[in-house]
Amino acid sequence: METTRRDFLMVGTKLLVMTAATASALEHVLAGSIDATASYSAADHWWVMLIDVEKCIGGGHCVRACKTENNVVDEPMYFRTWVERYHINMSDPDHPIVDSPDGGINGFSEKYAEGNGKTFFVPKLCNHCADSPCTQVCPVGATFRTNDGVVLVDKEYCVGCRYCVQACPYGCRYLDPRTHTADKCTLCYHRLTKGMVPACVEVCPTGARQIGDLKNPNDPAHEYLRTHKIQVLKPQMATGAKVYYNGLDGAVR
Amino acid sequence: MPGVDGFMYPNEVELQWSVLIVLYPFITGLVAGAFILASLERVFNVQEVRPTYRLALLTALAFLLVAPLPLQMHLGHPERSFEMMFTPHTTSAMAMFGFVYLWYLMVVLLVEIWLEYRRELVLFARASAGPQRLFYRLVTLGSDNISPESLRIDDRLGRIVTIVGIPSAFLLHGYVGFIFGSIKANPWWSTPMMPIVFLFSAIVSGIALVLLLYVVTSRIRRASLDMLCVDTVAKYLFYAFLVDFALEMIDLIHRIYEADESFRALDFMVKTRLFTSQIVLQIVVGTLVPLAVLAVTQIARLNDRTRVRLYVTAAVLTLIGILAMRWNVVIGGQLFSKSFLGYTTYKMGFATREGLLPAMVVLLLPLGILTVLVKLLPPWTAPEHSHT
Questions:
Q1: Quick one: what percent of chain B has pLDDT higher than 70?
Q2: Does residue A36 lie in a domain region?
Q3: Which residues span the domain enclosing A150?
Q4: Range of B42's domain?
Q5: Is residue B141 part of a domain?
Q6: Is A37 among the domain residues?
């Protein structure tokens, strides 16, 4: 068959349209696209969080800032970050008494008398695990780890099966009742990629929370990790948790 | 906080997986179990259970068709569920569901049923008229050769499909067990025993259901029971149940003896919030009693009527027990905090999206589908010939 100009144009147009459609379809199916700023290169960073348990005074600034900054749902009470109060009676150190009234959003009222056991606060948030069980189980890959070590959720893609919520050993995930998709701490990715620190870090009055970039050789996090006794939550879970605690009591889980 | 004892991580207070997710392993278990019973006759030549062969296949199909429904109803975005098949995440156990399901439905069950019924479909098409004729002609897929040679090929093919079907049934339900058993964050679920326990409890529940359906449908049709068949099915129910019980006890004893960091929390949960559903319903009413009843029928000489009554009792209790087991796995696994410091409560709605009412509909729907299937493809008029 001889190809006329008309045929050529028709076939060419069809091909073009189809390629565009395929490209947009492909873009649609490639979960895990992140809205970072143009100058930000994820591969140049490796974010970790440093938490100094001894500095936390349980004021709840971090919880409030997180709720506001990230528009975290109020009812039911879900949290991207929250604060727990541990009280350990020295006669029964294996069984700590823990509370976190409304996630510690309004701070904590005095409950334990001085000298009667020990009391301390433990801020919690997503551990942005390097080998995270939540990303492993996601059936569509809507939750993923970026090259800079942050675990994120693609809300356009999440099917809302909640398998990730079950798989997280730390209770950091929930289903946002407004979007019916999984939600969790993003380390304020929208701030990180613009060179700012997460909201919880920004507002902490005692500096109990610090963000660190382990791919930046000048980041003070290196020095901090080198000079402190560091622990992660539930190390037996082998998730590669990247929230590093200084002064974490063995009773904390 | 209402409904909470001790400390839960704040995001744990509300349960994520509802009664609908309880039904999912229960229903797929019935599918796998019914199919295994059918394969007894087909592959292992247990001729005594022939009268239940077709009923078992149709039961498996009816329940399989409903199996994805509770999952769909549970999803936050059911309209995106097809992404699990188009862009599956290869490390996710859940992503495999669509493939395992379709394999089982399209390659195993439908093909086997079609081969089994092909001769009659052709005869029905010839004997009927109007829309009925059109339906039967359509489902013959244009294959109307029912010469002895052709039927012999059907039979051989059917046997091969069943042989493929047995590991597929194991895969289907072992896989469902893996979904729970592979969650290391949850000590109530995380055990390599989970797929095996799920599998054997599936076989038990499927056999119990087909036994029950066979007796009930025979009563409805006023047909006499094939006692040799009923006795044999009950015998297999007893054996499968013994294995299942042994496996569950190994798991339990192991947990109690090992008493790891989660033990205190789980032990407390079983003795309090799960006491009724775990100790009473699952272990005593749903396992020990039916096992004792079945044991009596194996030992004592009883007349036909008494035996049938005991079998029916055992089958009903077995189904209650296995449903309770699914409940205890799914709901029980979410009642305690992963901090092991507290417990929450499951508040089941009634006419809500994931409440009791939709759950009951999902559970009864397969029986409706089965009624239609039985009308279209009568399982009682099985040809006298047996499979070779």
A1: 98
A2: no
A3: 42-246
A4: 5-376
A5: yes
A6: no
Chain B residues with CB inside 8 Å of A172's CB? 11
In terms of domains, do A9 and A127 share one?
Answer: no
DSSP state of B336: B
**Which residue among B14, B71, B185 places its CB closest to the CB of A169?**
B185
Structural domain count of chain B: 1
Residues of B in Cβ contact (< 8 Å) with A162 = 16-17, 76
Cα–Cα distance measured from residue A107 to residue A62, given in angstroms and rounded to the nearest whole number: 10
For residues B259-281, average pLDDT: 95
Of residues A122 and A32, which shows the higher confidence score? A122
And the tokens for B135? 């339906």
Of the pLDDT bands very low, low, confident and very high (cuts 50, 70, 90), residue A31 is very low
Per-residue pLDDT of B216-229, as tens digits, reads 999 999 999 999 99
A26, A126: one domain: no
pLDDT above 70: residue B197: yes
Which parts of chain B are beta strand (E)? Answer: 5-6, 342-343
What distance in Å separates the CA atoms of residue B25 and residue A241, rounded to the nearest whole number?
32
CB-count burial class (<10 Å; 0-12, 13-18, 19+) for B10? buried
Query: What is the tally of structural domains in chain A?
Result: 2
List the single residue in A29, A174, A180 with the smallest CB-CB distance to B77: A180
In 3D space, the residue among A251, A240, A199, A253 whose CA is nearest the CA of residue A95 turns out to be A251
- Residue B381 covered by a domain: no
Residues in contact with B335: Cβ distance below 8 Å, sequence separation at least 6, in sequence order = B15, B269, B273, B274, B343, B344, B345, B346
Burial (Cβ within 10 Å: 0-12, 13-18, ≥19) of residue A5: exposed
Q: Are residues A107 and A128 both part of a single domain?
A: yes
Mapped onto helix, strand or coil, the DSSP state of residue A176 is strand
Q: What is the pLDDT of residue B106?
A: 86
Distance from the A57 Cα atom to the nearest Cα atom in chain B, whole angstroms: 19
CB contact under 8 A, B339 and A169: no
- CATH value at residue B297: 1.20.1630.10
Residue B43: strand, helix, or coil: coil
Instruction: Tell which phi-psi region holds residue A134, choosing left (phi > 0), alpha (psi between -120 and 50) or beta.
Output: alpha
pTM for the predicted model, two decimal places: 0.91
A52 CB neighbour count, 10 Å cutoff: 20
Q: How far is residue B294's CA from residue B234's CA, in Å, rounded to a whole number?
A: 7
Domain with residue A130: its CATH number is 3.30.70.20
